[in-house]
Design a protein that fits this description.
about 70% helix; 3 helices; about 80 residues; mainly alpha
Length: about 80
């Protein structure tokens, strides 16, 4: 069963009475700085990965023609001998 509005209010009151407002404020501040630190570390990681990315790979085979000077010469010679 999910607690409703009044149950959350009672739960909050009990937590404040047990821990006190000063302790809860410290925990909230610590949690906030931990989240901020985590986000900064994730952003630094993303930036480092972007800087070290390899060049974009060509996926279309029609654009992926490799030029080889020797094979071009041999193909020309073969074409000349056939005629």
């Amino acid at each position: 069963m999910i607690p409703g509005g009044y149950e959350w209010l009672v739960l909050l009151l009990v937590v404040v009475l047990v821990f006190g407002t000063k302790k809860l404020r410290n925990v909230g501040g610590d949690l906030g700085s931990a989240v901020k630190s985590f986000k900064k570390a994730m952003q630094d990681e993303d930036d480092a990965v972007k800087k070290n990315e390899p060049p974009e790979q060509i996926t279309d085979d029609s654009k992926a023609r490799v030029f080889d000077a020797k094979s071009e010469t041999h193909e020309k010679d073969d074409a000349n001998h056939k005629t």
